[in-house]
Amino acid sequence: MDVWQYIYREKIPLPSLYYTHTRKCFYRDGQWLAAEDCIKRRPEEEVVEKQVRCRTIGDITCTGLTLSTAHSIEDIIAETAATRVTERGGRADDKRSETAMEDRKINGYF
Fold it and tell me: What is the distance between the alpha carbons of residues 84 and 54, in angstroms, rounded to a whole number?
């Protein structure tokens, strides 16, 4: 929340992915993912268009999408204040194991 309020106060521009946009996506393991050719879909995974935004931005293969109507920093702040999901809560790679973040640190990701 502090970071979003700082961005608002300092009028820092953000990439458009942080704001809500219509995107083709599919649902897997409790989260929406972008329907891109680099992500192999399972036969049962249907591609649909949704109003989504990215709460964090990383590799497209593991960056989950959030259903959202946030079109401004003020909207993002209000949405963040109301949610019970952490900023990284939509990252598929964090859900692979209990120690996913630590595993990446050991392997030199950070």
Answer: 16
